[in-house]
Design brief:
Strand 9 (152-156), helix 5 (159-167) and strand 10 form a beta-alpha-beta unit. The chain is globular, with a radius of gyration of 19 Å. The chain is built from seven helices and twelve strands. The chain has two domains: 3-69, no CATH class; 76-225, Rossmann fold (3-Layer(aba) Sandwich), CATH 3.40.50.2000. The strands form three sheets. A six-stranded parallel β-sheet has the order 8-7-6-9-10-11, with helices on both faces. Strands 1-2-3-4 form a four-stranded parallel β-sheet, with no helix packed on it. It is of the alpha/beta class.
Length: 229
């Protein structure tokens, strides 16, 4: 191994700077999750001259920050089949404690017809009072299988789930959690959803405004991976 790469989180602060003691070159690539400015982890690492720092957003390429490309560059959305009602929907809320996202569950329960199969991954969101098919936590294998089996995925606007949808060939409906509803620490998920929507790789909606017609729209779309040169 001649290089070690990190794409964010506090763990990078502990391990990445020390990698050169083992004779391994450290490289930091900031997450897609912070379009407006580098993450806190990235800002700290940018002060270490032996750690090259890369951003996935050209507007953040200042000072030591370099931009070459984004992970999203490899994906493009295409028009697939004609618009049809989805038969199976997967709704994923994320698992980060202590944040709940009951607004999205209530909206899905309101707009999706009873003849559509809906599976929820709820994390810490309390839904025991509802007659729905849900699992709090899923293994990665089960999670990826649910994405693959669904006609439509409706998701909180987390990067990991978004990339999983694209890799499975699906354009998701992305619903950002809002700090004003105590659903997350800030509104960075809205930035992620906006970037995804601007590239045509997701349909961004607020929890209170998403409609069943939106689900029909994304079912007619698909995602393919561009050839990398």
């Amino acid at each position: 191994m001649d290089a070690v790469y990190s794409t964010g989180a506090a763990l990078a602060l502990a391990g990445l700077p020390l990698s050169r003691l083992a004779g391994v070159r450290p490289v930091y690539i900031d997450s897609l999750a912070r379009p407006s400015a580098p993450s806190l982890t990235g800002r700290v690492l940018s002060h270490l001259p032996w750690v090259p720092v890369y951003t996935q957003y050209p507007q953040n390429a200042k000072g030591r920050w370099r931009y070459e490309h984004s992970l999203l560059d490899r994906f493009e959305a295409t028009q697939g089949q004609s618009m049809q009602d989805p038969r199976r929907v997967f709704v994923t809320l994320g698992t980060t404690k202590p944040w709940q996202f009951r607004r999205l569950v209530d909206r899905m329960h309101e707009i999706i017809p009873a003849n559509v199969k809906v599976r929820y991954q709820t994390g810490v969101t309390e839904v025991s009072d509802l007659d729905i098919d849900y699992t709090s936590m899923m293994s990665d294998e089960e999670f990826q299988a649910e994405i693959a089996a669904a006609d439509v995925v409706v998701t909180h606007s987390g990067v990991g789930t978004f990339i999983s949808c694209l890799s499975a060939g699906k354009v998701p409906v992305m619903i950002p959690r809002r700090a004003s509803f105590d659903e997350h620490v800030d509104d960075h998920q809205d930035q992620i959803a906006s970037v995804a929507s601007s590239r045509g790789l997701a349909l961004r909606r607020e929890a209170h405004e998403v409609t069943f017609e939106d689900l029909r729209t994304v079912r007619s779309l698909s995602v393919r991976q561009r050839c990398q040169t």
